[in-house]
Amino acid sequence: MKLFQVAKFYVRRDHGREYCLIFFFNEKYSLLQMSFDIGEYTDWTDWPYLQVSMGCGRIFSFMCSMGKLAFAFDIIGRNWRDEKYYTQGDETPDELAQGLPKSPPDAL
Q1: Could you say which DSSP state residue 30 is in?
Q2: Is the overall model pTM greater than 0.85, yes or no?
Q3: H or E element at residue 67
Q4: Would you place residue 100 in the very low, low, confident or very high pLDDT band (cuts 50, 70, 90)?
Q5: Spatial separation of the C-alpha atoms in residues 96 and 39, rounded to whole Å
Q6: Residues near 87 by Cβ (< 8 Å), separated by ≥ 6?
């Protein structure tokens, strides 16, 4: 069992390309996460967007978007992707539906 890994880089394709880099992380938490996104379905004339937040699973989060480009980073927070994603990749909606737990049996 690894206590933590030093770095991981991956590219995710979802409404464009998202380049992500994670430093000093384990299965649930990381010291620093960064992403750069180039969107395919947005327009260059979209309004700029800036979000700075604290709490909700992270110490500090910053996100900036301008047109088709976006940048985000988190300091000491929950991972954006869990270990299942790294080993299996994106799931289709059908695969997600199959992974849902079955409803509990009716009580007598």
Answers
A1: E
A2: no
A3: none
A4: very low
A5: 24
A6: none
Q: Are strands 69-78 and 29-39 parallel, antiparallel or unpaired?
A: antiparallel
Confidence label for 81 from pLDDT (cuts 50, 70 and 90): low
Per the model's pLDDT, the better-predicted residue between 58 and 60 turns out to be 60
The beta strand positions in the chain, using DSSP E, are: 5-13, 16-25, 29-39, 49-53, 58-66, 69-78
Q: Which residues pair with 69 in a beta bridge?
A: 38, 66
How many Å separate Cα 22 from the centre of its chain?
Answer: 10
> Tokens for 12?
């995710």
Report which of 45, 98, 86, 85 is spatially closest to residue 69, judged by C-alpha positions: 45
Token representation of residue 82: 């869990």
Query: What residues have CB less than 8 Å from 65, skipping those under 6 apart?
Result: 37, 46, 48, 49, 50, 71
* CA 90 to chain CA mean position, Å: 12
